[in-house]
Amino acid sequence: GLDPAPLATEALRGDGAVLVNKDGKPFMATYHRDGDLAPRDIVARAVEAEIKAGRGAFLDARDAIGAKFPNAFPTVFSACQAAKIDPRTEFMPVAPAAHYHMGGVETDLDGRTSILGLWAVGEVASTGVHGANRLASNSLLEAIVFGARIADQLREAPIELSEEAGAPGDRMEISPLPAPAGEMMKLRKAMTEHCALIREGEGLADLLELIHKMHESENMTSGLKSALVTAELIAQGALAREESRGGHFRSDFPGKDDEAFHTEIAATHLYEDEA
Questions:
Q1: CA of 90: how far to CAs of 31, 84, 93, 113, 274, in Å?
Q2: From 86, 111, 162, 240, which residue has the greatest number of CB atoms within 10 Å?
Q3: Rg (CA), the chain
Q4: Which of 40, 134, 241, 250 is catalytic?
Q5: Known catalytic residue at 40
Q6: Number of alpha helices (DSSP H) and beta strands (DSSP E) in the chain
Q7: 220-239: per-residue pLDDT in tens?
Q8: What is the CA 184 to chain-centroid distance, rounded?
């Protein structure tokens, strides 16, 4: 299959497409009262459970969308065509997907970060718009509201783009090389096994141990360093959060804490060897 796999938009289910197993039996009603319109983290875990149980998971859009598919969802339709699947008459095989990195760079309500001259917007940012789940409507809201606010800041505060700004002098200087494919595959497999839809403490601890060993790789490049830093921040955040909330599910802590809280982690210690 393609890597990354093409995304089957949630709008398909919004338009009436149904998740079914290999026998064509709908299954979402057994997982959530909202059935196929359940929150995306519930849907992702249900798809994972059906696949692991050997029943498979597919999207049936034959009745709901049918002949309208090429015009209504051209991107998904072309992806299906490339895979020799006709969603007008066949089931579409699906796999679970989730936004594992629910955090981001902390910003204020104008998109400003703690580094002078650096703003952040979208999924890289932690503005408070998304909460514990990434939702398409929230992403649009964030782009429209915070994108405009940052543009206003850039117009009104040109001093922040002067020599006083924090970059590039403060940043890590290593050659801009992509990560070696073998090392990236090792990291991706470990993240999928221990830090994906269902997490637990022992697996996260094993994952962090692997990440720390990989930091000593003889094949270190800027791409691999960036991937390892990101992976460690996600794993550390998941290990610290001993509850389940939104896209973060801990099988050893399935309940949700009474009060919501932010996990704040600084990555500075990861760069000490570069100083």
A1: 24, 10, 9, 48, 53
A2: 111
A3: 21
A4: 40
A5: yes
A6: 8, 5
A7: 888 899 899 989 989 999 99
A8: 17
